[in-house]
Specification:
By secondary structure, the chain is α+β, with helices and mostly antiparallel strands. The chain has helices at about 10-20, 40-45, 65-75, 85-115, 120-125, 130-145, 155-165, 180-190; strands at about 1-5, 25-30, 55, 60-65. The protein is globular, with a radius of gyration of 17 Å. It binds glutathione (GSH).
């Protein structure tokens, strides 16, 4: 089993962090998205959507989408709550991450960190700010009530949202007005096995 990923990518870091928190390792194959390595015929044959991360099994099966891969890697672990309500809450946060958080905060960070904030991308970068701040407000509200997104302990929801929230400043976001989010970032960093994003 191997992961194809880019160590600067938050979506790929989700998997590295989850594995580290579980004390597990997995073979890792570096993919350079700026060199178009997700768009080669060989890669598209593995995963038609042409994005990393992907998890490839020894028999050739492939899983894509970071949050789906996390469910595979964490099956049966305490990172997935057993109560139906809490499990659905976990999914709620992962869908929120993909629709209301990542398209703003991760994309602004991509424009800044990967592309170096070129002049022709500045309007797009600015346009991502309002949506990103709205997502942070939603998180702040929850994290004022509970230490983790689904209650008292860390779940996949926290790992999914931690990936880009803790580097939100790289997308131009100031976390100063979000004390509960900042406290939650510290709580995640304090987890046994925690590893930082290596990019
Ligand atoms: N929804 C996907 C998003 C994956 C994604 O956007 N990956 C980016 C890197 S973070 C990528 O592969 N970009 C290269 C490309 O689109 O060619 C997930 O969560 O895995």
């Amino acid at each position: 089993m191997r992961i194809y990923g880019d160590k600067r990518s938050g979506n790929c870091y989700k998997l590295q962090l989850l594995l580290a928190l579980q004390g597990k390792t997995c073979e890792w194959i570096d993919v350079d998205i700026l060199k178009g390595q997700t768009r080669t015929d060989g890669f598209l044959e593995k995963s038609a959507n042409g994005k990393i991360p992907i998890l490839e099994f020894d028999d050739g099966r492939v899983l894509s989408e970071s949050n789906a891969i996390m469910h595979y890697l964490a099956a049966g672990s305490p990172f997935i709550p057993s109560s139906t309500y809490e499990f659905a809450k976990l999914l709620q946060w992962q869908f929120f991450e993909q629709y209301s958080h990542e398209p703003y905060i991760a994309v602004a960070r991509y424009i800044n960190i990967y592309l170096g904030l070129p002049e022709e991308k500045k309007a797009e970068f600015e346009a991502k700010q309002a949506g990103g701040y709205s997502a942070l407000e939603v998180m702040e509200r929850q994290l004022t009530e509970t230490p983790f997104l689904v209650g008292d302990s860390l779940t996949l929801a926290d790992i999914s949202l931690f990936a880009y929230t803790h580097v939100a400043h790289e997308g131009g976001f100031d976390l100063t007005p979000f004390p509960a989010v900042r406290n939650w970032i510290s709580l995640v960093k304090d987890q046994k096995g925690f590893i930082p994003l290596q990019g």
